[in-house]
Structure formats: C-alpha cells, structure tokens
Amino acid sequence: MSVGEFAKILANSNHFQVAEVSIATQLSVERFLHQQAEFLDEKQWDDWLALFSDDGRYWMPAAEDQSDGEGLPNIFWENLDLMRMRIARNNHPQAHSQAPENRLCHVVSNVIVENEDENGDIIVRSRFHCAEYLRYEVRNFTGKYRHYLKHTDSGYLIALQRADLVNREGPYDYVLQWWL
After folding, report:
1. Whole domain around residue 35: which residue ranges?
2. Any domain includes 95
3. H/E segment holding residue 23
4. What radius of gyration do the chain's Cα atoms show?
C-alpha cells in the first residue's frame, strides 16, 4: 500500500472507532508511542528514524480535513531522506537557529487503537502536548496523532504518522525546527 493510500485511510477512517484489542496489544502500542516521544526528547535521532518503515512518512497537514499530503500545502510531509536532512541541518555546528540548543518535552496520552487488521497492522490515535524550550522561551504545542503502524517480526514500524496541531493556523514567532 502506498503512503498516499495510508494517508487516505487515516483521513477517512472513523475517528471515534475503538477496536477490541488484547491488553498486550494496547500496552505494546502505548509503549511504542512513549518510546518515540522519548527518542525525540533525548535527540536519539537514529533510534527515532529506525521506528519508520522504509517508505514511512511524517505528516503535519495544514488543514484538518486534508486527506492527502502529496501536492498540497503541509507544515511537514517528509520521508526518511527529508527527515535525515532536517536532522543534519539542525545539528550542524553553524546552525544558528539552534544556539542555544532547543529542548523538547513530549507527553502522549489517550492512546486508542482504532483498528487492528489480520496482519497485526494498527491504526491508533492519541493526544499530545509538546513543550519546546528555545531562545529562552517555552512554546507549547498540542494536538492529536494518528499513526498507521505496520506489524513486523521485530515490532511496529511507522508507515505514516499524522500530527494535527490544535493551533495549526496560528502565528509562530519562528519556524518549527523539529517534529512534534
């Protein structure tokens, strides 16, 4: 299935659906999402990138009703190559936007598995709060995540992560440097 098809699944699936999954599955999904937040907060970039499938995408649409990221305005619509480029740019010694270096703190909650298919692939929604400390100020971002997680022998991989900001159309003093 293509990334565009994943995007349409996340955009068009029932946001209020709750799947009957085992406690082990629920805990496994929650741990996965919490580990992802920890990797971002601790800037463990290689570990974070390893959570994505080879064709995985990080998507932050510009509009709530957006059902595709391809060819439309987005805040982020990044594959692994673009994510690696962002990491390299932000970690470059001359990246003045990171002086002093920013810090993040993610809280992920309200984890609800919407669907689990016969392969063990999962659609899950959750809520997040991310505080970013940069340039001696704290910015707060809140919103909802939707993940399409592919089940593999070694655990889940992110085929698509969609992050919908509550304040997506709001003004920002400076551009988002990292992922929320």
Report:
1. 3-165
2. yes
3. helix 23-41
4. 16
pLDDT tens digit sequence for 8-46 = 666 666 667 888 999 999 999 999 999 999 999 999 999
Torsion angle of the four alpha carbons 101, 169, 72, 77, in this order, in degrees rounded to the nearest 10: 30
108-124: per-residue pLDDT in tens? 999 999 999 999 999 99
State the CATH number of the domain containing residue 59.
3.10.450.50
Nearest to 33 by CA among 129, 154, 124: 124
Q: Are 77 and 59 in contact (CB under 8 A)?
A: yes
Structure tokens at 63: 């509009």
The answer to whether 82 and 59 have CB atoms below 8 angstroms apart is: no
Q: What angle do CA 85, 5, 35 make, to 5 degrees?
A: 50
Full-prediction pTM beyond 0.70? yes
Picking from 132, 76, 140, 130, the residue whose alpha carbon sits closest to that of residue 108 is: 130
* Domain contains 174: no
Query: Residue 148 corresponds to which tokens in the numbers above?
Result: 């399409």
- Please tell me the distance from the alpha carbon of residue 73 to that of residue 100, in angstroms, as a whole number: 30
